[in-house]
Amino acid sequence: MSLFFSDHIKMFAYIKAFHIIFVVTWFAGLFYIVRLFIYNREAQDKPEQEREILQSQFKIMIRRLWFGITWPSCILTLIFGTWLTVLYGSLPSWLVVKIGFVVGLLMYHLSIHLIYQKQITNIFNYTSMQLRMWNEVATLFLFAIVFLVVVKHELSFVWGVAALLVLFLVLKISITLYKYLRAK
Question: 112 and 30 in contact (C-beta within 8 Å)?
Fold first, then answer.
């Protein structure tokens, strides 16, 4: 019986390691893809020859990042996360909340996919500033999920929500300040 338990612990550790690796690469892809969207959108304001060169290069980079890293990382994160949940055996309240944040992150991911589809066809529905704001949504998910997993038993709901609101305000102020300084 102890041999089975030992093997179960080892398997759990390996699956958890893969889950964490793919979470990191998924977030890296989400953060970088929106930056590329911003640069692609800003290339619209360049003279025609420069715009064509930049946007053709950005389209290559965007497509490779999205389908070569971000989507595969998303899928593998969900596979390994589901596997961990099954091995965990029960759904404590912190895990239910985490799954809720992951569902929100997945919806964010799908919204990025819609932006991807538009930008690849040279349709730009958002300004670079709007994209900068949207890019920070991933930051909020990252903070919420990591803090929930790491300090799950010490974290109170009220303080968690308050911290996310403060983080949102800091990000909003930073982006507004960036816009102001850039305009100067």
Answer: yes
